[in-house]
Design a protein that fits this description.
By secondary structure, the protein is mainly alpha-helical. Helices cover 41% and strands 3% of the residues. It is built from 12 helices and 3 strands, in the order αααββααβααααααα. The protein has helices at residues 2-34, 51-63, 66-70, 106-115, 137-148, 164-171, 178-181, 198-204, 209-212, 248-257, 272-275, 280-291; strands spanning 78-81, 87-89, 159-161. Strands 1-2-3 form a 3-stranded antiparallel beta sheet. Strand 1 (78-81) and strand 2 form a beta hairpin. Helix 8 packs across helix 12. The longest helix is centred in the N-terminal third of the chain and has 33 residues, at 2-34.
Length: 301
Amino acid sequence: MNKWIKRSVLSVATLAALGAAALALGAWLGDRKAQRHVQVSVEAVELPTDAASLERGHYLYSSRGCAECHGADGAGRAFIDDGKSMFVKSPNISRGPGSVVAVYAPVDWVRTIRHGVKPDGRPVFIMPSEDYNRLTDADVGALIAYVRQLPAASGNGLVAKVPPLVKTLYAAGLIHDAAERIDHSLPPAAPVAQTVSAEHGAYVANMCIGCHGVHLSGGKIPGGPPDWPAAANLTPGAGSAMVRYASAGQFTAMLRSGKRPDGSAVDKAMPFESLRELNDTDVQALYLHLKQLPPVAVGNR
């Protein structure tokens, strides 16, 4: 019996050691993957200076998630903190001390925002550039112009504590960075009229891709903290969350309040700080687009 117990303990210890070694190797491979060079062709965009364009840039910065991650002042803020093994604080993108964009040329901004690639060719690991890849040239230019004129604020570079398992899944190709998800050969999106239409709603819906998937059918968010729930299915398919919203008014109220029509709270993983900044035209157009999507079963991203 004693020999059996000793052998069992030894087997468990060996398996634990092998598991730890595998995670260590996977984490190392994940770090190495994050250092790879991604070659993309980048076209410069015009940076406007007029007040209307800067106001458009401010609106995009506030409503498309930029302020939610980098802060209203661009100095950076902690936006993922599970209190355990995952912590992410975004970098300072203002002109102040510790800025990571101090030497960015306009084309470097385009490469990062639209393609998820840093000026040195390394991929941006956490920033959801797939949400911004389909912004029109005018919107990309307005967004860059607005951020470049933010007042100087003190901050520092990216601070990221990522569990070895997440790095291992990233190394294995089960979690992808934005540069992997984006089709870099696509031309810039053509402008559409900013009206309450499904066509404009499709443009607005690009901001949802990072969490809800390219088909907007939801499912587990790749690389998200373990306590984050699965993203909802925004199509009319099986498991759709849209059946809760019989009107654009109900949908708008949810984005403004974080509560469903029945009064229950939507999980705070939803970026309500940004979503409540969406204007009525964008929200109503988004609702029209989601309602006319082809059905896709939940979880098919």
